[in-house]
Structure formats: structure tokens, C-alpha cells
Design goal:
Helix content: over 70%
Low-confidence stretches: none
Region (Disordered): 1-80
Oligomer: single chain
Number of helices: 1
Biased composition (Acidic residues): 1-34, 41-80
Mean pLDDT: 93
Length: 80
């Protein structure tokens, strides 16, 4: 009887350990997913910021060109 009890106890313990291991694996998977998502979000945000900077630079260049063009026209008009 005692041997049976021991065997049963051992099996239960093994099952519990297996369950715990499975849970740990699942948690690790979840954490990895979250970390990947976080990295993707960061990368996306970085790209957006770079795009905004580029757009701002382009706008500034265009504005400067327009100002230069206007200035040039004014000078030409003054000469006339």
C-alpha cells in the first residue's frame, strides 16, 4: 500500500512540475511577444519622427526658396 501511495505521489508531483513548466513556457512566449511588440512600436515611432523631420526640412527649404524668389523679384522690380 505504501508503495502505491508513493507511486501516486510521485506521479502527481511529476504532473504538477509539467504543468508549471508549461505555464512558464507560455509566460515566456507572452513576454517575448510583448517585447517584440514594444520593439516594433519603438521602431515605428522612430520612423514617424524621422519622416516628420524630413517633411519639416522640405517645408523649410521650400519656404526659403519662395522667399528667395520673392526677394529676387522685388530686386528686379526695384531696378526697373
Amino acid at each position: 500500500m505504501k508503495e502505491e501511495d508513493n507511486e501516486e505521489e510521485r506521479e502527481e508531483t511529476e504532473e504538477e512540475e509539467e504543468e508549471e513548466n508549461e505555464e512558464e513556457k507560455e509566460e515566456e512566449k507572452e513576454e517575448e511577444k510583448e517585447e517584440e511588440k514594444k520593439e516594433e512600436d519603438n521602431e515605428e515611432e522612430k520612423e514617424e519622427e524621422e519622416n516628420e523631420e524630413e517633411n519639416e526640412e522640405e517645408e523649410n527649404e521650400e519656404e526659403e526658396e519662395e522667399e528667395n524668389e520673392e526677394e529676387k523679384e522685388e530686386e528686379e522690380n526695384e531696378e526697373e
